[in-house]
Design brief:
The protein is of the alpha+beta class and 129 residues long. The protein has 5 helices and 3 strands; from the N terminus they run βααααββα. A hairpin with a 5-residue loop joins β2 and β3. Keywords: Ribonucleoprotein, Ribosomal protein, RNA-binding, rRNA-binding.
Length: 129
């Protein structure tokens, strides 16, 4: 069972956030939390909070399954460009340079690596017949 968490309009450039997101892509949840906790980059704290939110979303969907038995991992994490705030900075000789303050949107999907329950396996067998 998958769980999704989204983070919109983070005031960090997408390129900087992708550096941190690439560290946890495909990792187990416990390892990903440890990586983000000790990563000094700016986006790590926000991604750690997002990962905790995704874990909480997964627990809400699967209240009957124990978190340790589920063997959760980061299935996908995407960092897309958000809105760009355009500002002007004074430049020499009466000119102005445009400053682009970038933001991003992050989508995190968790999945369980544990084998499926028996009910789901039985329904697939019925469809094959």
């Amino acid at each position: 069972m998958e769980a999704v968490a989204k983070l919109n309009n983070v005031p960090t450039s997408p390129r900087k956030m992708r550096l941190v997101a690439n560290l946890i892509r495909g990792e187990k949840v416990n390892k990903a939390l440890n990586i983000l906790k000790f990563e000094p980059k700016q986006g790590a704290a926000r991604l750690e909070k997002l990962l905790l939110s995704a874990i909480s979303n997964w627990q809400q969907k699967n209240q009957d399954v124990d978190l340790e038995d589920a063997d959760l991992f980061v299935k996908t994490i995407t960092v897309d460009s958000g809105r760009i705030l355009k500002r002007l900075r004074p430049a020499p000789q009466g000119r102005a340079h445009r400053i682009r303050k970038r933001s991003n949107h992050v989508t995190l999907v968790l999945d369980s690596a544990a084998p499926q329950t028996e009910e789901k396996v039985e329904t697939k067998d019925k469809k094959d017949k």
